[in-house]
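This section describes the prediction task in plain terms. A model, or a person checking by hand, is given the sequence of a single protein chain and must write out its three-dimensional structure as a string of tokens. No templates, partner chains or ligands are provided. The sample shown here is typical of the held-out split.
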Amino acid sequence: MTASGVLYIVVFFLVLLALTKPLGLYMANVFEGKRTFLHPLLRPLERLAYKLCGVREDAEQRWTQYAVSVLSLSLASFLFVYVIQRLQGFLPLNPMGFSTGHAPGNATAMTPDLAWNTAVSFLTNTNWQAYGGEATLSYFVQMAALTVQNFVSAAVGISVAIALIRGFARRQTNSIGNFWVDVTRATVYVLLPLAFVYSLFLCARGVPQTLKPYVKATTVEGATQTIPVGPVASQESIKMLGTNGGGFFNANSAHPFENPTPLTNFTEIVALLVISSGLTYAFGKMMGDTRQGWALFATMAFLCLAGVFICYPAEGGGNPILARLGIETAATQTQPGGNMEGKEMRIGIPGSALFAVTTTDASCGAVNSMHDSFTPLGGLVPMFNLQTDEVIFGGVGSGLYGILLYAIIGVFIAGLMVGRTPEYLGKKIEQKEVKMAMVAVIATAFVILVFTAISTVAPMAKNGYWNPSGSPITNFNNSGPHGFSELLYTFSSTAENNGSAFAGINVNTPWYNLFTGLAMLIGRFGFILPALAVAGSLAAKKKVPTTSGTFPTHGLLFVSLLVGVIIVVGALTFFPALALGPLVEHLLMHQGKLFSSLMFSIWS
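The expected answer:
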């Protein structure tokens, strides 16, 4: 690590901390129906949305009605995005002539299985991309389907988090709010204003925003080169703010048109976490005790910093195999040192490591470097971040309702230790709440481990088709511990609705398109439905008075307990799998050639 690199990380956290309270206070006012400084401008738009959709602003919903509304919007989103993709050849704003049955030049055809996978990906806020955006989708699809879903899926996550907050805050009622009102307010008052301002900033820093065809350029050698452009800034802004991650370009935020300067890189990292961070303060404000929100923020910040200061030294230390060959791997005045494979020189190791950790802390698949090229321990951190159910800030909304479910598990464990019925925020935590929290945690872990195991051994996983005859299979992915890490990361990313990848694996096959899509659906709704059930159960309960025996949930002890629960649950669940992948690869990298060959042979 270097002093400048550490300073970069410290400044980032100070900026994030400074933005948390004002944004959180603003969001609390929005979802409590209070007037804000944007109401004179945006209130007419909100009312118009209700009128067009037939929504009664004062109507409340039970948790089951709220859940049905979430599912119905998600189904409509899936059908819309799928149909738009399949019909892109007949729709306007398609200057490159992208279609479905054929693909011009080096483009990728939008086949039925790929369209299914992409539609599921964007409705679940995963934005997993088994295609290259600039070589597959028209401007119309990028804007009308994908960018719109970036707003909608993020608003759904925020709405579910707000519903769970109401479950804790309300007493002896059967309603948790109105989903259609919450999703409208999240879009109109939070996502749209932030995305608009940030889009203008990105345009000013050099990110394209145009509907003109791709640019033809002549290189210095006289060859012709096609330079993709398009409405990039508008998609880039909500991609980061909504923790979506789906890039306009295949290289995502490593592409200079998505992330042109060190300043844009820094602001994109801030944008990744700012809404999720602000929601922790909004939670405390809506509960009437901001200390509760700061306790969640402290838990998330500690885990995030721990990941950064494991990943950064791992990448800054470089590859010991190269060092044994006499190659200089330390930072000097003439070279950055460390492991620069898969990273942009203009961004460097600190910016790449911080981006990798925060994008996997959040439910965001955006990348500015290739995680597949990280050192084993450097790649282990993003992978483990995913496997904590992304409650370290997490996606917009999903991080908050995820960590609240972990808090329920934490206070339940604390209650077992002292033989007392657990309480959290004035509500008794009983059998139903604990069961629902465990269902959410187990659902994602089951999908990750089972789908990875099947994909490791099933012949159809290798090239996308069933191969019962045992005939030779082509198109193998990487083998050994690194190949296993790629598979484990694939299903960790999709089940946890992240969308980033160890990109050395070919996932545009029928097998992966189908099963990563299933993983995304289970990961999304396997958390949302239990969270809403918990919200409904808690809202019906009366408030329990605080006594001398009540476990305080705003201090260091609670933060330590919650950190421990998150780490232990993740470690116990995934340690055997991690041992077969990045941990074995780390040992191999630090051993001699003979030992490495022996270990590789044993593993294979």
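For orientation: Confidence is low (pLDDT under 50) at residues 465-476.
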